[in-house]
């Protein structure tokens, strides 16, 4: 799908869905801290939520890797 390779749309997704809610702290940052702290008490919905908020960043990293490997 072309949309999965469009870096402009993926960047917009990172800035909106990836960092939402913006205050007091992006949701993804809180989940990552929770996981680093041992993920005590995390339920399946918390893991799904982490993947949902982190997926745009995974796509962005994928695009960067594809661009770098194609350049060499």
TrEMBL record:
Record-annotated membrane-spanning stretches: 7-24, 44-65
Source organism of this protein record: Oceanihabitans sediminis
Keyword list, A-Z: Membrane, Transmembrane, Transmembrane helix
Protein known as: RND transporter
Superkingdom of origin: Bacteria
